[in-house]
Design brief:
Blueprint lengths: L1 E12 L2 E12 L3 E5 L6 H8 L6 E6 L8 H4 L3 E4 L11 H11 L5 H8 L15 H13 L5 E5 L7 H15 L5 E5 L12 E6 L2 E7 H7 E6 L4 H5 L5 E5 L2 E7 L3 H4 L3 E4 L3 H12 L5
Length: about 290
């Protein structure tokens, strides 16, 4: 079934076009990475999906219009922005009380069970917790909500690498069940490479790449070229070239690995390297 579907989604702020006629479709049970530079339209797209801003075009989330049916939609949606949104004066116990009071699908026992595996005290205030502990608290609240769609907007911003890895490991192993849908935006793209099922790049309010991760692996190839094979490799017209430790690395679109393997070492490119290559090709896209 379809979780999110948009046709001609458009949002304009004055003379600035934030979303320029986007068409997209996200099936249920997928984990989508929505990636783009600052000002690309990611947050505007999320706000439209969450019913936080009006828009032009057609948009359905879980079969509902987010702008006119937001109250009904929010019963099945959970949104997590930067963990700093938790009020610093609030005690952990009060955070549990609050979510239990406002969300009918919050399972307090499940949240308590998750927190029991941490060192977080119920009497502590948010301002007394480290950033990593705040992330654990936030995740406990989120995982205890039986939502069909989870939207994460830079959820690990400011956390060290250990807590970032723990966040995504917990999300994948204890929350995602193959039926729920997760949409993630982040600038730490390589850290979610193994989490995603689908990838979408946005630039200037347009989608410049939309693909499953399986299709990415079959379509794009990165080649570390043997020095004697540079000319031969360039005949396949790479999207991007860069130097790594004195070796030339090329990124190819639609060239079979069988044709490249004799020219050097091949691998699937990282999301970050693919992002740089695709954005370089689309900088001339007009608004």
């Amino acid at each position: 079934m379809t979780c999110i579907e948009a046709h001609g989604l458009r949002k304009v702020y004055g003379k600035s076009v934030a979303l320029d006629g986007i068409d997209l479709r996200v099936e249920e049970g997928r984990i989508l990475g929505l990636i783009g530079p600052n000002g690309a339209g990611k947050s505007t797209a999320l706000n439209a999906m969450l019913g936080l801003t009006p828009y032009q075009g057609e948009l359905k989330v879980l079969g509902l219009d987010p702008w006119t049916q937001r109250d009904e939609l929010m019963l099945d949606v959970c949104f997590v922005a930067d963990v700093a949104v938790l009020p610093r004066w609030m005690k952990v116990s009060q955070a549990l009380d609050y979510v239990a009071g406002v969300h009918p699908r919050f399972d307090r026992a499940k949240a308590e069970g998750f927190l029991a595996r941490t060192t977080i005290k119920r009497t502590s205030k948010v301002k007394e917790l480290s950033k990593g502990m705040v992330a654990q608290l936030h995740l406990a609240l989120v995982m205890a909500i039986d939502a069909r769609l989870l939207v994460l907007d830079e959820p690990t911003l400011g956390l060290d690498i250990l807590y970032r890895k723990q966040f995504y490991d917990t999300l994948l192993n204890e929350y995602f069940d193959g039926d729920r849908t997760i949409v993630i935006t982040t600038h730490q793209v390589d850290e979610i490479q193994d989490v995603l099922t689908d990838l979408m790049f946005v630039n200037h309010g347009r989608i410049v790449l939309s693909s499953s991760m399986d299709a990415i692996e079959s379509r794009y190839t990165e080649l570390m070229v043997k020095p004697e094979n540079l000319a031969a490799a360039r005949e396949f017209r790479p999207m991007k070239e860069r130097q790594v430790f004195g070796r030339t690395v090329m990124l190819f679109d639609g060239v079979s690995r069988e044709r490249l393997v004799e020219l050097g070492d091949v691998r699937t490119p990282s999301i970050a390297d693919l992002f740089v290559a695709v954005m370089g090709e689309t900088q001339g896209v007009a608004r």
